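Subject line: Sequence and fold of a protein, written as structure tokens
Area: Proteins and the way their chains fold up in space.
Start of record: The labelled sequence and token lines come straight after this line.
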Amino acid sequence: MTPTRDRDAAEAVLRKAIRRQGLPKKITIDKSGSNTAAITPYKRMHKVAIVIRHSKYLNNFVEQDHRAVKRITRLMLGFKSFWTARCTIAGREVRHAIRKGQLMTTGNAS
């Protein structure tokens, strides 16, 4: 992949994340040049103050959170369609978030 293409992909991910999650105060990235090249022009164009933190290990919390989902889906040996995969993984993610206390539930779930 070319550096331009990497930057374009990083810009697309950044726009999608901001659209879904809102504008962040801080963004933690590794030393990837494409992420920095995507965030810096976004900050300049939209005149926002986003702090960029460079850390190799702070993103590991997110990666570790997906271990339970990876363990389950690996045993399934694949899905027949993307729709099935999306629905299955979304359900597992919600169940995991409820168990961790990240989502409020309406009833008593065990």
Remarks:
- Helices lie at 3-21, 33-46, 60-65, 67-76, 82-99.
